[in-house]
Design a protein that fits this description.
single chain; 535 residues; mainly beta; six-stranded antiparallel sheet; 30 strands
Length: 535
């Protein structure tokens, strides 16, 4: 049974090995633009161009070479004086060779792919947030919706980050700026791709109520925003078309048989003309140049440093430009991140101003790629309220005056009651000689239960939580936000038809720790989906 996808599949320029195009004896009904199939009746690979099915092209057959000229007729033999037989007529001359077929024309060169390189503007603009319009002569492979960094060509520390909201091809680009660096007005700008800004960290939870008499602990710090997604890779230039096959030379005609002499022997038959040489095949068109590339690696020996300048040797002729944010990682626990200050495409030399790091050590194996901006730090949780002061036990009665006049002993102070579970105040000690101690619930850690500072919670690393919900009335190009309330980004999502339980595949975005966004292109067959989230 085929698996159903309601959204596109991006192989990230990886090979699709041993595929077989769908085999059909007739064309599909209601086709989409660019749809292909193999016609088993016509034996053609066919493509829908929006109005008709087109067969994969074949080279045309070369034209037949011109016919060879006719041989000359043999002369008539002389009449013998005494009746001897006349001499034999001479052989007809051999037909001329057919002319060679003309050479096929060379295929046209493939169209060059557009890239994100060499996109500049001379528009005078002041650094600041909001909508900024730039005049360009080359808009490259940028599109509306992409995140870009617009850097002053002479001073990389002066830049603006934002999202493209409008673009006129090779004319203008409008950017909604959300973050900036430096200040001033400049008329020389360079465009480059940038990762999405991380979402804002969630607000720290409120501190638990302090034990009786002590101050409550501060709330935990908000979590760091997730890393922005990597900018999309430029599309590959189309392959040049194959030149048509040269025409085949025509076969020379057979020479005519020499005429028989009046009394002489019959002339010999003229030889057959040779076949014309087949025309050469036109050379294949040049392949278009590839779009921009960022992912690369380095074997430069380097020690992890929290700040400062580091120079690596990476791949040549990549799409990096000054000012872009990058991450250089040996592993998930050993990495550095910062901004590109110099890149030489011919040698692959890249210099990075390191602004932060994780881990330590010296390594010779690095992976280099674009890095999204880090989300802002969430605010601190409010301080827990101060527990109420336990009451002091009453002083014991003074002993009666003895015969020797000594004072009676002072009564002892009642002990403070112990705190109850989860922020609840323990029972106050009874007034009198000894305050009674509040009973303490016994909770041990393990088997899915966590105990920390008097707080009991579920250990989600051992106990899986699940949320399931159905939605109807769904259509094509739809989006659905599900509030699962599991308080974690580490969730697994499955999507089913609520009736048949056939599993579908859609796009999934972890919006925050309690919300997941699902989106699809093709309408669900029954207009309804069941979303199951496990965390």
């Amino acid at each position: 049974m085929a698996r159903i996808f309601l959204t596109g599949i991006d192989l990230k320029q990886n090979q699709l090995l041993n595929p077989v195009i769908q085999n059909l004896s007739t064309a599909p009904s209601s086709p989409s633009l660019g749809q292909i199939y193999y016609d088993t009746t016509l034996n053609y690979l066919r493509t829908w161009n929006g109005t008709a099915w087109l067969n994969a092209s074949q080279g045309t057959t070369g034209t037949t070479g011109a016919q060879g000229t006719q041989g000359i007729q043999g002369t008539t033999g002389l009449q013998g004086t005494t009746g001897t037989q006349g001499t034999s007529g001479t052989n007809g001359t051999q037909g001329t060779t057919g002319t060679q077929g003309t050479q096929g024309t060379q295929g046209t060169q493939g169209v060059q792919g557009r890239s994100h390189l060499n996109v500049t503007s001379a528009t005078s603009t002041t650094i600041g947030t909001g909508s900024k319009a730039f005049t360009v002569t080359n808009s490259g492979d940028f599109n509306v919706g992409e995140y870009v960094i617009v850097t002053n060509t002479g001073t990389p520390s002066n830049f603006m980050l934002g999202q493209i909201t409008a673009l006129t091809l090779d004319s203008s680009i409008t950017v909604n700026v959300t973050n900036t660096g430096g200040s001033g007005t400049f008329a020389a700008w360079t465009f480059a791709t940038s990762g999405l800004q991380g979402i804002q960290g969630t607000t720290g939870s409120q501190g638990t109520t302090g034990t009786q008499g002590t101050n409550g602990t501060n709330g935990t710090q908000g979590t760091t925003g997730s890393q922005g997604t990597t900018g999309a890779t430029g599309s590959q230039g189309t392959t040049g078309t194959t030149g048509s096959q040269g025409t085949t030379g025509t076969t020379g005609s057979q020479g005519t048989t020499g005429a028989q002499g009046t009394t002489g022997a019959t002339g010999t038959q003229g030889t057959q003309g040779t076949q014309g040489i087949q025309g050469t095949t036109g050379s294949q068109g040049l392949q278009g140049t590839a779009g921009n590339v960022y992912q690369t690696s380095s074997t430069t020996s380097m020690t992890i440093s929290g700040t400062g300048t580091q120079t690596f040797t990476v791949g040549t002729y990549l799409s990096y430009s000054v000012g872009q944010s990058v991450i250089v990682a040996n592993s998930i626990s050993n990495l550095m991140y910062g901004n590109v200050t110099a890149y030489t495409p011919a040698t692959g030399s890249m210099t990075i101003n390191v602004t932060g790091s994780v881990g330590s050590g010296t390594f010779t194996s690095w992976t280099v790629n674009l890095d999204g901006a880090v989300g802002i730090q969430g605010p601190s949780g409010i301080q827990g309220t101060t527990g109420a002061q336990g009451t002091v036990g009453t002083q014991g009665a003074t002993g009666t005056q003895g015969t020797v006049g000594t004072q009676g002993t002072t009564g002892t102070t009642g002990s403070q009651g112990t705190q109850g579970l989860q922020g609840l105040q323990g029972n106050q000690g009874t007034q009198g000689v000894q305050g009674l101690q509040g009973s303490q619930a016994s909770v041990t850690q393990g088997s899915g239960i966590l105990v920390s500072a008097g707080v009991v919670s579920v250990d989600t690393t051992l106990v899986a939580e699940k949320y399931r919900v159905n939605y109807g009335g769904l259509s094509a190009n739809g989006t659905q936000v599900v509030n699962h309330g599991l308080s974690t980004f580490y969730t697994t999502e499955n999507v089913y038809d609520p009736t048949s339980l056939v599993e579908y595949f859609v796009d999934v975005t972890h919006t925050d720790a309690n919300h997941t966004t699902f989106s699809w292109i093709t309408a669900p067959p029954n207009g309804a989906l069941q979303f199951v989230i496990s965390g």
